[in-house]
Amino acid sequence: MSTEDRTERAPRVLKAPKQDRSRATRKRLLEAAVACLAEHGWAGSTVSVVAEHAGVSRGAAQHHFPTREDLFTAAVEYVAEQRSTALRDLFPDGPADRRAVVRALVDLYTGPLFRAALHLWVAASNEDQLRPQVTELEARVGRETHHMAVELLGADESRPGVRETVQGLLDMARGLGLANLLTDDGTRRERVVAQWGEILEGVLTD
Amino acid sequence: MSTEDRTERAPRVLKAPKQDRSRATRKRLLEAAVACLAEHGWAGSTVSVVAEHAGVSRGAAQHHFPTREDLFTAAVEYVAEQRSTALRDLFPDGPADRRAVVRALVDLYTGPLFRAALHLWVAASNEDQLRPQVTELEARVGRETHHMAVELLGADESRPGVRETVQGLLDMARGLGLANLLTDDGTRRERVVAQWGEILEGVLTD
Questions:
Q1: Does A134 lie at the interface with B, CB-CB under 8 angstroms?
Q2: Residues of B in contact with A171 (CB under 8 A)
Q3: Where exactly are the structural domains of chain B?
Q4: I need a surface site. Which of A63, A110, A128, B101 has the fewest CB within 10 A?
Q5: In angstroms, what separates the C-alpha of A134 from chain B's closest C-alpha?
Q6: Chain B window 146-185: which residues touch A at a Cβ cutoff of 8 Å?
């Protein structure tokens, strides 16, 4: 509120840069939060650690995100949105070659975002404070990913079994992400993705 | 060593009960370790917590398992072996109805064992002390599960793509386990498993 008042009194021309700075700070915090979560896990990721990593004061971090839970759920959501946008940009003309789409969907689950999200899920499963926000976030991101998968695969969900086929594919992608957690599973994953791309092509075009 | 010596000096008839007690203590510790891991996560699962949960002194726990890492990797392995045995017992005549086998395989990943293993994997991804043991354990359990899946599905791995088909199915099972972490995903999972059971039946009998 007091920040607003001060802004009001400043000349209008100065408003935009200040908002830009605030947005940039927020973005730095969100990206640092995901990086910390992926690297140090939930126990090692405090607001102070993230603020330091982002080069932002602890006070500024708390201005943007009142609680640790707020910061980390916002961070995973922010990066998930960015990944969705990147995926859509890969296929600007909508439905595309299914084998390529399967590969791109699986890629969503093998990077630092998945690693960060996994730490958040596992922490939420034991922490009552975190669980409601993360459960809601997971449902939202899951729906969005499903929607995108259906669209890019050109899958007709009015046909029996198609919805479950796409869901199972996304479950497989999540499982492949998990298999990549401790070791680089890229070579095996490549073969599994090629085979299931073929199978999916057959099931969806029948 | 000194325990051995004392045993040697005792009358032979007393030896068996003592070994039985030791085996029972070990078993209690292993089961308590998995329960603690599933319920409290890695950070909340110390050797002391497990020993108390098992009704065993901390000294006795350390006699069986010198380090915390030893205790928890042994625990996840022990329970994984028990689950494998239970799965084989479900299909005593070997290859069985594939839809039923798919369902039973997915069930391996939705109980407290999977939850415990997940905590262990995620902790190992950030802890250098834990990583080598858990990586080796995961590879061993993964090979055993794959072997069992191939056998029970009556899958002919000499045919191109069959190995990768079975691997993808197990990845999907893992992903379904993950989806069950925060909420009861049973209704959705049931439909996905039914559909993918059909798909697998088609692919493996072609």
A1: yes
A2: 172, 175-176, 178-179, 192
A3: 2-205
A4: A128
A5: 8
A6: 161, 164-165, 167-168, 170-179, 181-183
pLDDT in tens, B186-200: 999 999 999 999 999
- B44 in contact with A, Cβ within 8 Å: yes
What pLDDT was estimated at residue A7?
A: 46
Q: What is the dihedral of CA B37, B41, B42, B46, to 10 degrees?
A: -60
User: Which residues, including other chains, have CB under 8 Å from residue B201's CB and lie 6 or more apart?
Assistant: B98, B99
Query: Is the CB of residue A24 less than 8 Å away from at least one CB of chain B?
Result: no
Calpha distance B114→B103 (Å, rounded): 15
Asked whether the beta carbons of residue B175 and residue A175 sit closer than 8 angstroms, the reply is yes
pLDDT value of position B49: 96
Q: In this structure, what DSSP letter does residue B184 have?
A: -
Provide, rounded to the nearest whole percent, the portion of chain A with pLDDT above 90: 77
- Whether the pLDDT of residue A53 is over 80: the answer is yes
> Helix, strand or coil for residue A173?
helix
Interface confidence, given as ipTM, is 0.87
